[in-house]
Design goal:
Elements: E1 15-18, H1 41-53, E2 61-66, H2 68-71, H3 79-130, H4 134-176, E3 179-184
Parallel strand pairs: 1-2, 2-3
Length: about 180
């Protein structure tokens, strides 16, 4: 179905796919008309995998090798816009996931700060009531640990979790702008 002979990982050539029929490229279970169909999962995975290896500043080119009879079909002219529309749609979906991550991160941060403030307040109350006894110190340290654990997830979200999502969104954005060429074989 698909071949990658023309590409080497980390190379800068086009993403080349050999198919025998246009239906191999699109999800056959998708009820939408041809130009609005989703890409087949294997085709998407193949294209995204190779696009990930290309330099970020490089324009992505996708070359579809088809039998000459397929290239002459009226649907063939819709392949490039269909692929670009699909990747643009996926870019939007990934952006929504990023927005949701930040929304949940903000809520988690708000809760974490409340827990931290409450814990600090309680540690001050414990110090006032029990003084500097070992038991007081035990409760104070335990509350501070709980408070920082409550802030672990929002800190992780805002420091690290969003990077891979942004990279994926940017990759799909580049794929939405990819040049798609059909070549007969």
């Amino acid at each position: 179905m698909m071949t990658d002979k023309a590409i080497t990982p980390g190379g800068n050539g086009p993403i080349e796919i050999r198919i025998n029929d246009l239906s191999q490229l699109f999800n056959s279970l998708d009820p939408f008309p041809f130009p609005e169909r989703d890409l087949d999962d294997n085709a998407e995975e193949f294209i995204v995998g190779w696009a990930r290896e290309l330099p970020r500043e490089q324009t992505i080119r996708i070359v579809l090798h088809l039998p000459r009879a397929m290239c002459d079909l009226p649907e063939a002219k819709d392949v490039a816009p269909a692929m670009q529309a699909y990747f643009a749609y996926r870019t939007g979906v990934i952006q929504l996931a990023l927005n949701e991550l930040f929304r949940v991160g903000r809520l988690s941060l708000f809760i974490g700060i409340l827990v931290l403030g409450t814990a600090l307040f309680i540690t001050q109350m414990i110090a006032g009531r029990l003084g500097e006894s070992p038991l007081a110190r035990f409760f104070q340290e335990s509350l501070i640990i709980v408070a920082w654990v409550a802030n672990w997830r929002p800190i992780e979200t805002f420091l690290y979790d969003w990077w891979p999502i942004v990279r994926r969104r940017n990759l799909y954005r580049r794929l939405a702008q990819a040049e798609v060429e059909l070549r007969p074989y």
